[in-house]
Give the backbone structure.
Amino acid sequence: MELPRGKSYIRLEQISQEDIDNLISRVNSCTWRQTFHIQPVSGLLNDPNGFCFYNGEYHLYYQWHPLGPFHGLKYWYHTKSTDLVNWQNVGIAIKPDEYFDSHGAYSGSAVEHDGKLYLLYTGNTRDENLVRHPYLCIALMDDEGNIIKSKKSVLDKVPDGYTEHFRDPKLWKVEDRYYAVIGAQRTDETGAVCLLSSNDLLEWKFEGELATNLDNFGFMWECPDYFEMGDKGILIFSPQGLEPEGDLYQNIYQAGYVLGEKIDLERRKLTHGGFIELDRGFDFYAPHTMKDPSGRRLMVAWMGLPEIEYPTDISGWANCLTILRELSLRDGKIIQTPIPELQSLRKAKAEAKGELSDETKVIEGFTGVTYELICEFERGDALEYGIEFRASDTEKTVIKFDAVQGKVIMDRALSGKVIGSKHGTERKCKIAGDVYKFHLFVDSSSVEIFVNDGEEVFSARIFPDIRSQEIRFFATGGRAAFKAVKWDY
Ligand code: FRU
């Protein structure tokens, strides 16, 4: 059988090894393959799943369609690491091969219980009319890495009041009881989050909907995640169906959080403030967190979006995960910082500093395709200042601070191959005070920019020509001082 070319539920076993090898060699010859991001060996990656620390190692799974860059039959793919930086491809973790997951092992999460790792995931099925029927399913991983699926689903009927869009359980434990938030769509086609609970992770009780003050906020909430930091409760989710509003909600779908008091499990209520987007860039969805053994809250997300075509599609693959970010709270807001473990990737170092006076400077030694760059700015009277990177005569990606509007602006109009241009080529966000630091992680086809030590983050896939390697510093309409350090990766 030939490789599928569009949405299909063809199974990996139906394809010959020769066709798979051909696909993989097509993927490997793509110049946009990433070097320090988790990416699929072939086909499409989407949501991170089951991120956890178990038996002395970090495990991170993701949604995977092996046979091409589109959303076909989904598997859980397993990667693991001891340092959160170097990830080993382990292979398929969950195969969709039962009545309850026949059309995909969809997203979910993991928790350790009685020495085993429990993976709670969504079984996607479709009937002969292609109508979806989701199930909640369990798989168990032992300390040798063997994964066994439970033969029956743990919830096989969507509760009354909700549609077939009921998926993506995220687990946590309170004393001796396990809870899960799950993404849902009400029958009136608005998004919501529901709550489930269990003593043993095998028998689950539907508790009901989690009350928030966002009753009419998009048509579906995907991939919810609930956790606590200090005396605060945080609910992350990916709402679909929000209309753009000023600089907000510019991507096809959003990902963000509400922060407030700790969840009231008895009354199933979350008292919280407004919805805040987690990332201000172009490609960020389905974030997923875990608490590591030292107590840090770590977050990873899909650096991509549903329903967007990427230029790697013709090479047989699409998407990657973000680098890991540590979350903390400052002034009622989540702050994101790249995990310090990434510093182990640092190789050759280059440093520069200078004054910019209504000019763009190119500096000896400041070029590259994969690197980390920290640039501190001090504003004189410049109206704008920033960095152009992956640049050539015809291409550049720009991050800058516009002091007049008090906004950080990312521009990928000239970044190379065009992506999702229907949704615009600029992303902006207001920031209090001046930008004093841009911290960039640039890989072959992506950039993640941390602004002012993680107050805001802009993530984007970019697809420049391999020869576009210049880094330039600029100020317009006046003066600014800069100090930069770059490490090749
Ligand atoms: C989010 C999502 C989830 C679903 C999974 C399927 O991107 O649509 O809701 O479980 O992807 O791959």
Summary: The pocket of beta-D-fructofuranose is lined by residues 46-47, 63, 74, 106-107, 122, 167-168, 222-223, 286, 306 (CB under 6 Å). DSSP finds one helix and 31 strands in the chain.
